[in-house]
């Protein structure tokens, strides 16, 4: 948000001695005695963009959840090989013969060049897979971030030092490279390369790998916040009053790090989605026939598609852009709602 | 940013999205697509036979290519760098091609027509294609005079002995195994026991196996008749290696050339320059020419790049031709439909035939009904699709490729040519009759884009017929090691096999001889059928290639139609194009691509 | 003396010698929550060489007023009405370039926190020299020498060397001295000091205040001194203006206002201020309630929601009618002069003693 | 300051050391037996054994690691393929090339791609960011920030193929991206990389637009900036002399990280455009489970990242005296 006075070009809060800007005072009036949560909620509801993007995001999650239902109503599934079911729709190389990737009343989003899967259902299920994984990773990282970050921040001293060193070390890892390299390794932990790799194993591997290098940033932030909180009066008070650390952390600290966690996770989740897609794109993530967002991109980057059916690549592409944009906007709104002073 | 600003973002996001969608229109159908009639004629023409040439035919120099001129440089774009240059390590198509220019063996293929269709096997280093007095147990070769390595040293029988003995050394593990197996008289990889370290620790093959009585004579002695030896020796894999120039592992990067060209420089993955080998004497060589001064080979040239350049045909591209690269799918129709360009193209089959192997070592697969059901149900169209459609793949009827003597285009027992998507209905009926609906099929596939594509589609097709298909990916680079394990758990998996020489004797015995079943051997379906075995033995002894070919054909049809241990999928094809100033451009059926030996600059 | 029945909002005729004269100034910001009236109908004059102290709680609009004088507000969100005359020059409508000529030259400002107010990226010397180069068209060298001279004036030891230092190498007090040097480098006619001592500890405070006074003697410039500390005001200012919720509620000389305050709010301020000589056991009486929202200011007298003397006025005047402030010694309150006197004498003063 | 840099460099070395251990361990958990790869079609157990011996895979892992380290530092002649001068990462299982040589072969591609791209996206990104901040609230600002928002939400694996499809395959305006040696043919070098540069920098630039704008705006709200205005300094002067200086710090940080990871191999970009750089090398080496190569790429790439971090720290000192003199 922008506060009124200051030099042109840069809105800044009116007064030098850090009193809240007028509009915040305005809110104080109407929001007297509300909990921060309520305040945040009220502010958020006032933010139209935020609300709209929230709807979009929810829409995507619904798609993910309801994919089976939708495709049941739609009467198709992403596994049927229409290139063999309906050869007349394809040429010998498996490219739909009708223009625009064979979009028709029957195949709303057209057919995938190659085996001719139904793009619509494939996209639905692809979103389902990618979102599922991303959510899992986010949860895992948040948990790790909380545990390690808060511990380091609260206990400080040696623990803090070592956890911080670990964080530094992991941050020095070439992440993407590490993902690619370790995927087969992690997979091999579960199945000998001789046997089939069940989908769930790939999923678990993806989650593990991304989690392993995903939690540090949040961990750092939480460490910082906790470090700051630790010095605050009410914590001191709690300490003096002899509350056990566990209780202090639960009752005093955690409630106060909810904000950074929520904000961070709204930024992390889309990153995990794109990262997962990236891995599948490189062929180390989810593979055919399991539908997956990133895998659709790798299909879209094949000569066959780029040469003959450019339409195909827009379905995964555009849907992902919309998703990520919506999510980032949501993230901004959430942040503003929590902390109206941030001016960007 | 302020909230008001973010409204705008949202708006713009939507705008951008729609804009993207609008530009995303495309016309249907691939721009590839071959021309099947063409290919059929091609197939017809390729049903040629190959005779063994006599001493006269083996005399150099090779017959001039009509209109050939000497001099000039030809630049050669290639996709893959050469992983191996040591002849004994060469078993791969593109390496064999360059091998033709670098290395000479005891025998070689001499083109007897100028269209690359007719050949005979003649003596190359040897004075003839080999003489045998006892139906192929003992083969005698005499070396020509004036044959030298690039360093000027004469090629003697000692070098030839060394050549064959080092085939047994551990570091030689990529080349063809035929002659070693014949000498050791064992199938599979056990031949290595015969001379575990090769010649490098002072051990040598006894005269009872390989005899070199004098500097010019080499005698091979086998337990069984091996009428195909002249063919085998013509493989680059058995070309001469200089004994004193042998640097073992390092030889793979810098071999001593004996052919018309030698390596001036080789940057793996980047480029290679071949220049005239002054110590090569055309008078001794009945099959090679030395028209151009040098070949500039550049690697990492993808198909579409080389094609684009060659189609444009300007500057240096006018004198360039790729040995390996074929015209990419995207440009096929363009190239084939433009008469001016068509004159610069050659079309032909590669020697490979794709097939789905049914692992008969598994109980469930031993039921012939099940195998027939698979044969009916299996869609082969996914395979054709995955590799670029009819321009690159042709639905196969039998296991004998059009490039091999004994091909019959009309043979199609499972109706794949009519209905490549398979006939699940019929298959289902058979399964129901046999009460085998729901049979579990473990389908091993190569973990590559293509592999994933066709395996999923094939699985879908089989499932329609009532099979329960379990796909299992196999890392591409260990694929063959894994499917060739005796105890592998794959019921069906795809392999392709190219004849090492244009006779089904390099197809049927290695693939279907029940006694060749071994760890890592190529009898992937592990079929052990008495009739096949006995037929193999019988036909192997027929020394007249023509008669043999006819017999092999019959046996092949028996395997596909009555044994059903495999289902043929497709014949590999390719179209290649050259610059307008390239002369002597020929698609050689034996090479399985452009013949580099005949090229000259117009 | 005050006339409470003065006609509403009538501009008071500018004193001929008024150096700075603010007339019926209205400053309001557009925010998402609505329009905030930060300054609402403020008028005051300031003569050369005099010091005006502006007192008031946070958000009473004192800083806003002064930022507006310098034109340091963001036109995108702010609307300014009324007039600000500096030697007869209208500032509210002046062009940006005009204002730039004034800033740091005729009118200089000292900010509260010298650490954040000085750029960490440039040497103190350079930052002092910059405005001198700009306004005096001085050469780099001359400007530098001037900077050193100024540092010397504000009592920085070994100024030649220190000028080459960066702010973070200075102590808090020295920084504030540097700030002052920077403000005075072009010897301005008007110096606006926005709580210049709040961030400093008491001893340093005293030094800085003395410094300011000395310099004022030397340069003879007028000072607007903003603070919420009546003690400081007593020490520094000639006149006082008490601001509440964007408007002035009482004005007069230091003596008048501190000895005989007339406005309940001023009483509140005095109450809430501890004194060395006051009885340590007597409780401090903070002003009840919270500052009003400038979004929806209370009707009538802005102070009425917190005012404990409404009933004395009687009727609903406090809620309905806006009390006005006269030009000279006066206060904006509906209480009669007598009431004010008696209430202060009988109810407030005892508590202060 | 110098002491600080030295300390950081030492830290980097330690991290690299740990990294090498972790990576080494990681890859000896690799699912595929490298010897099996090399063994080829006609492979016997005996032969496999022999290969294990040649590759030293039969030794205990700590010993293998120790050998790896010593080779790295002092080179080795113990390789069947030939001598291997320091820094010796051994020979690739797959191509039998020296790993270090291969890395050096691939490096120019990655460097060209990265530096070229970096120039593009820094100029465009910072430029648009500054303009947006300068014209804050205007339509220009909203267009820039909005556009940046959308573009930065795109992925190279979408934008790349899209660009290829339109510019190369459909319209055939450009040649397929490829790396040509700069010294040999600058024009070809430029032509071959232009599409990757544009795609790469488009996405990165959009992030820098947002970053430089927001950090600029934060700076403009700094007190000292207001002081400068109060001194009568012109808006432009304050904008560029006071605000910009400060706004650079977060940007330099991010830039250091980006540059580091890109120099370590712009994996997806190189993969998408088929450029033979370090990133592509990494992917290939994984697919061939070519351990020495993979290890080499990993360490090299990590080194790049750490180097860039150190450079960034040094850069701070130039921007911010507080760091220099602390």
From TrEMBL, chain A:
Q: Which residues cross the membrane?
A: 52-74, 131-157, 169-191, 203-222, 310-330
Q: Name one GO biological process term.
A: transmembrane transport
**Per its UniProt record, what Pfam families does this chain match?**
BPD_transp_1, OppC_N
Tell me which residues make up the ABC transmembrane type-1 domain. 127-331
Compartment annotation: Cell membrane
Where are the stretches annotated Disordered? 1-29
A single Gene Ontology CC annotation of this entry is:
plasma membrane
Query: Main localization of the protein?
Result: membrane
Keywords, A to Z, come to: Cell membrane, Membrane, Transmembrane, Transmembrane helix, Transport
Q: How does it sit in the membrane?
A: Multi-pass membrane protein
| Similarity section | Belongs to the binding-protein-dependent transport system permease family.
The name under which this protein is listed is ABC transporter permease
The species this protein was found in = Streptomyces viridochromogenes
From TrEMBL, chain B:
Single annotated GO MF: peptide transmembrane transporter activity
GO cellular component labels: ATP-binding cassette (ABC) transporter complex; periplasmic space
Which is a Pfam family this sequence falls into? SBP_bac_5
Ranges for the Solute-binding protein family domain?
120-515
The record ties this protein, via SUPFAM superfamilies, to: Periplasmic binding protein-like II
What GO biological process terms does the UniProt entry carry, in alphabetical order? Answer: peptide transport
Q: Read off the InterPro entries from this record.
A: Peptide/Ni-bd, SBP_5, SBP_5_dom
Q: Which PANTHER family match?
A: ABC TRANSPORTER SUBSTRATE-BINDING PROTEIN, PERIPLASMIC BINDING COMPONENT OF ABC TRANSPORTER
* Name by which UniProt lists this protein: ABC transporter
- Organism for this UniProt entry: Streptomyces viridochromogenes
TrEMBL record, chain C:
Task: Give an example GO cellular component term for this record.
Answer: plasma membrane
Q: Name one GO molecular function term.
A: ATP binding
> What is the topology of this protein in the membrane according to its UniProt annotation?
Peripheral membrane protein
Signal peptide segment: none
Q: Where in the cell is it found?
A: Cell membrane
Which intervals hold domain ABC transporter?
A: 22-270
PROSITE patterns of this UniProt entry?
ABC_TRANSPORTER_1, ABC_TRANSPORTER_2
**Coarse class of the protein's main subcellular location:** membrane
Concerning InterPro entries, the annotation shows:
AAA+_ATPase, ABC_Ni/Peptide_Import, ABC_transporter-like_ATP-bd, ABC_transporter-like_CS, Oligopep_ABC_C, P-loop_NTPase
List keywords of the entry alphabetically: ATP-binding, Cell membrane, Membrane, Nucleotide-binding, Transport
Q: Which NCBIfam families match?
A: oligo_HPY
The similarity comment for this entry is: Belongs to the ABC transporter superfamily.
Protein name, please? Peptide ABC transporter ATPase
The protein's organism comes out as Streptomyces viridochromogenes
Taxonomy, top ranks, is: Bacteria, Bacillati, Actinomycetota, Actinomycetes, Kitasatosporales
UniProtKB/TrEMBL annotation, chain D:
Q: Which CDD domains match?
A: TM_PBP2
Q: Which SUPFAM superfamilies match?
A: MetI-like (SSF161098)
Q: Which GO terms describe its cellular component?
A: plasma membrane
| TM segment ranges | 12-30, 113-134, 146-167, 187-206, 242-273, 293-319
Q: Name one GO biological process term.
A: transmembrane transport
Is the keyword ATP-binding assigned to this protein? no
Q: How does it sit in the membrane?
A: Multi-pass membrane protein
Q: Where is the ABC transmembrane type-1 domain?
A: 107-316
Keyword Cell division: yes or no?
Answer: no
Q: Where in the cell is it found?
A: Cell membrane
This protein's UniProt keywords = Cell membrane, Membrane, Transmembrane, Transmembrane helix, Transport
Tell me where on the tree of life, at the top rank, the source sits. Bacteria
The Swiss-Prot or TrEMBL record describes its family as follows: Belongs to the binding-protein-dependent transport system permease family.
Read off the PANTHER family from this record: DIPEPTIDE TRANSPORT SYSTEM PERMEASE PROTEIN DPPB-RELATED
Q: What is this protein called?
A: ABC transporter permease
């Amino acid at each position: 948000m922008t506060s009124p006075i200051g030099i042109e070009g840069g809105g800044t809060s009116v007064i030098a001695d850090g009193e809240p800007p007028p509009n915040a005072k305005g809110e104080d009036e109407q929001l007297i005695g509300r909990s921060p949560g309520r305040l945040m909620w009220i502010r958020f509801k006032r933010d139209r963009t935020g609300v709209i993007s929230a709807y979009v995001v929810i829409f995507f999650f619904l798609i993910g959840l309801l994919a089976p239902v939708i495709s049941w109503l739609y009467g198709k599934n992403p596994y049927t090989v229409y290139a063999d079911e309906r050869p007349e729709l394809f040429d010998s190389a498996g490219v739909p013969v009708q223009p625009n990737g064979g979009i028709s009343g029957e195949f709303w989003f057209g057919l995938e060049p190659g085996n001719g899967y139904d793009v619509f259902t494939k996209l639905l299920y692809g979103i389902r897979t990618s979102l599922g994984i991303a959510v899992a990773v986010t949860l895992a990282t948040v948990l790790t971030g909380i545990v390690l970050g808060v511990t380091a921040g609260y206990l400080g001293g040696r623990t803090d030092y070592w956890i911080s060193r670990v964080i530094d070390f992991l941050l020095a890892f070439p992440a993407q490279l590490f993902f690619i390299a370790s995927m087969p390794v992690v997979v091999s932990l579960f199945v000998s390369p001789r046997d089939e790799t069940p989908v769930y194993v790939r999923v678990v591997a993806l989650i593990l790998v991304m989690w392993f290098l995903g939690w540090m940033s949040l961990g750092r932030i939480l460490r910082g916040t906790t470090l700051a909180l630790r010095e605050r009066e009410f914590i001191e008070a709690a300490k003096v009053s002899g509350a056990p650390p566990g209780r202090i952390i639960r009752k005093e600290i955690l409630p106060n790090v909810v904000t950074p966690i929520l904000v961070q996770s709204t930024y992390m989740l889309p990153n995990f989605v794109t990262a997962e897609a990236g891995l599948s794109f490189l062929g180390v993530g989810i593979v055919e026939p399991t539908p997956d967002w990133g895998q659709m991109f790798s299909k879209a980057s094949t000569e066959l598609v780029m040469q003959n059916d450019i339409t195909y690549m827009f379905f995964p592409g555009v849907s992902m852009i919309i998703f990520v944009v919506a999510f980032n906007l949501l993230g901004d709104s959430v942040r503003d709602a929590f902390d109206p002073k941030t001016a960007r | 940013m302020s909230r008001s600003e973010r409204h705008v973002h949202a708006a713009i996001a939507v705008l951008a999205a729609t804009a993207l969608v609008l530009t995303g229109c495309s016309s249907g159908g691939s721009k590839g697509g071959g021309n099947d009639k063409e290919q059929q004629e091609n197939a017809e023409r390729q049903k040629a036979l190959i005779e063994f040439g006599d001493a006269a035919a083996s005399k150099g120099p090779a017959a001039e290519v009509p209109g050939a001129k000497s001099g000039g440089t030809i630049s050669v774009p290639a996709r893959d760098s050469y992983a191996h240059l040591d002849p004994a390590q060469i078993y791969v198509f593109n390496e064999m091609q360059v091998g033709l220019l670098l290395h000479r063996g005891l025998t070689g293929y001499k083109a007897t027509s100028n269209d690359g269709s007719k050949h005979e096997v003649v003596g190359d280093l040897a004075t003839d294609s080999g003489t045998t007095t006892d139906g192929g147990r003992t083969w005698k070769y005499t070396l020509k005079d004036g044959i030298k390595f690039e360093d000027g040293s004469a090629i003697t029988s000692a070098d030839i002995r060394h050549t064959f003995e080092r085939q047994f050394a551990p570091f030689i593990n990529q080349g063809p195994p035929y002659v070693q197996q014949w000498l050791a008289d064992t199938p599979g990889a056990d031949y290595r026991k015969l001379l575990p370290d090769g010649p490098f620790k002072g051990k040598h093959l006894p005269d009872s196996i390989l005899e070199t009585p004098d500097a010019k004579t080499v005698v091979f002695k086998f337990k069984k008749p091996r009428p195909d030896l002249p063919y085998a020796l013509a493989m680059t894999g058995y070309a001469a290696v200089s004994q004193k120039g042998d640097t073992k592992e390092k030889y793979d990067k810098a071999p001593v050339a004996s052919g018309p060209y030698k390596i001036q420089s080789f940057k793996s993955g980047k480029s290679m320059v071949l220049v005239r080998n002054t110590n090569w004497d055309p008078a001794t060589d009945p099959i090679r020419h030395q028209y151009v001064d040098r070949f500039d080979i550049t690697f990492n040239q993808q198909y579409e790049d080389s094609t684009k350049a060659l189609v444009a045909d300007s500057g240096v591209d006018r004198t360039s031709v790729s040995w390996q690269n074929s015209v990419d799918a995207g440009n096929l129709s363009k190239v084939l439909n433009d008469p001016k360009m068509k004159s610069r193209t050659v079309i032909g089959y590669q020697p490979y035939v794709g097939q789905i192997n049914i692992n008969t070592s598994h109980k469930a697969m031993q039921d012939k009904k099940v195998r027939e059901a698979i044969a009916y149900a299996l869609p082969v169209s996914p395979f054709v699709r995955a590799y670029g459609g009819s321009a690159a793949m042709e639905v196969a009827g039998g296991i004998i490729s059009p490039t091999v003597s004994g091909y019959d285009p009309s043979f199609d027992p499972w109706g794949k040519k009519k209905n490549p998507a398979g006939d699940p209905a019929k298959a289902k009926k058979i399964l129901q009759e046999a009460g085998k609906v729901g049979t579990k099929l473990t389908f091993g596939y190569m973990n590559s884009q293509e592999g994933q594509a066709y395996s999923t589609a094939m699985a879908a097709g089989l499932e329609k017929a009532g099979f329960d298909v379990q796909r299992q990916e196999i890392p591409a680079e260990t694929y063959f090691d894994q499917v060739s394990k005796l105890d592998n758990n794959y019921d069906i998996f795809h392999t392709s096999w190219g004849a090492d020489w244009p006779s089904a004797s390099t197809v049927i015995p290695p693939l279907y001889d029940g006694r060749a079943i071994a760890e890592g051997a190529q009898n992937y379906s592990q079929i052990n059928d008495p009739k096949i075995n006995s037929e193999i033995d019988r036909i192997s002894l027929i020394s007249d290639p023509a008669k043999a070919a006819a017999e092999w054909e019959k046996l092949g049809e028996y395997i596909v139609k009555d044994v059903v241990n495999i289902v043929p999928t497709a014949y590999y094809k390719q179209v290649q194009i050259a610059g307008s100033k390239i002369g002597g451009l020929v698609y050689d059926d034996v090479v399985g691509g452009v013949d580099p030996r005949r090229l000259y600059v117009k | 003396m005050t006339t409470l029945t003065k006609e509403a909002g009538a501009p008071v005729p500018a004193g001929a010698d008024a150096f700075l004269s603010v007339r019926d100034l209205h400053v309001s910001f557009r925010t998402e929550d609505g329009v905030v009236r930060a300054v609402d109908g403020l008028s005051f004059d300031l003569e050369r060489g005099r010091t005006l102290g502006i007192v008031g709680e946070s958000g009473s609009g004192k800083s806003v007023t002064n930022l507006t004088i310098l034109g340091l507000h963001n036109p995108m969100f702010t609307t300014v009405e009324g007039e600000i005359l500096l030697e007869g020059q209208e500032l509210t409508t002046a062009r940006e370039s005009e204002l730039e000529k004034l800033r740091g030259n005729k009118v200089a400002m000292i900010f509260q926190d010298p650490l954040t107010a000085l750029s960490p990226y440039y040497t103190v010397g350079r930052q002092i020299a910059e405005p001198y180069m700009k306004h005096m068209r001085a050469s780099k060298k001359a400007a530098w020498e001037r900077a050193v001279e100024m540092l010397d004036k504000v009592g920085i030891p070994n100024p030649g060397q220190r000028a080459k230092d960066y702010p973070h190498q200075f102590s808090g007090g020295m920084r504030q001295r540097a700030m002052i040097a920077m403000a005075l480098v072009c010897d301005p006619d008007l110096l606006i000091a926005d709580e210049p001592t709040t961030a400093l500890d008491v001893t340093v405070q005293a030094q800085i205040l003395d410094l300011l006074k000395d310099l004022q003697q030397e340069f003879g410039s007028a000072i607007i001194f903003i603070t919420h500390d009546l003690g400081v005001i007593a020490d520094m200012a000639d006149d006082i203006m008490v601001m509440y919720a964007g408007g002035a509620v009482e004005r007069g000389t230091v003596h008048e206002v501190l000895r005989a305050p007339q406005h309940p709010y001023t009483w509140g301020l005095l109450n809430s201020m501890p004194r060395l000589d006051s009885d340590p056991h007597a409780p401090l009486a903070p002003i009840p309630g919270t500052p009003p929202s400038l979004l929806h200011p209370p009707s009538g007298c802005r102070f009425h929601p917190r005012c404990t003397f409404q009933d004395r006025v009687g009727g609903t005047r406090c809620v309905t009618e806006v009390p006005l402030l006269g030009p000279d010694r006066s206060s904006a309150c509906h209480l009669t002069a007598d009431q004010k006197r008696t209430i202060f004498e009988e109810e407030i003063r005892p508590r202060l003693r | 300051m110098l002491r600080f840099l030295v300390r950081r460099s030492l830290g980097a070395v330690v991290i690299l050391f740990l990294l090498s251990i972790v990576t080494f361990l990681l890859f000896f958990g690799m699912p595929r037996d490298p010897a099996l790869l090399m063994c080829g079609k006609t492979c016997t157990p005996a032969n496999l054994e022999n290969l294990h011996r040649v590759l030293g895979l039969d030794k205990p892992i700590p010993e293998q690691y120790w050998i790896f380290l010593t080779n790295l530092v002092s080179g080795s002649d113990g390789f069947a393929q030939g001598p291997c001068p320091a820094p010796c990462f051994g020979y690739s299982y797959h191509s039998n090339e020296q790993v270090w040589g291969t890395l050096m072969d691939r490096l120019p591609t990655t460097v060209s791609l990265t530096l070229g791209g970096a120039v593009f996206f820094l100029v465009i990104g910072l430029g648009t960011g500054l303009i947006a901040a300068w014209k804050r609230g205007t339509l220009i600002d909203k267009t820039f920030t909005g556009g940046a928002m959308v573009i930065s939400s795109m992925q190279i694996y979408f934008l790349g193929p899209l660009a290829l499809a339109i510019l190369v395959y459909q319209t055939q305006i450009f040649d397929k991206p490829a790396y040509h040696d700069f010294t040999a043919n600058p024009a070809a070098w430029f032509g071959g990389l232009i599409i990757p540069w544009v795609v790469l920098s488009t996405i990165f630039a959009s992030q820098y637009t947002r970053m430089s704008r927001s950090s600029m705006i934060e700076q403009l709200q700094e007190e000292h900036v207001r002081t400068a205005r109060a001194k009568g300094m012109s808006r432009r002067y304050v904008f560029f002399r006071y605000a910009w200086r400060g706004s650079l710090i977060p940007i330099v940080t991010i830039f250091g990280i980006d540059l580091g990871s890109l120099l370590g191999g712009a994996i997806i970009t190189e993969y998408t455009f088929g450029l033979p750089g370090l990133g592509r090398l990494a992917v290939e080496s994984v697919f061939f489970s070519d351990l020495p190569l993979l290890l080499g790429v990993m360490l090299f790439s990590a080194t790049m990242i750490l180097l860039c971090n150190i450079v960034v720290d040094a850069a701070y000192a130039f921007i911010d005296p507080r760091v220099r003199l602390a």
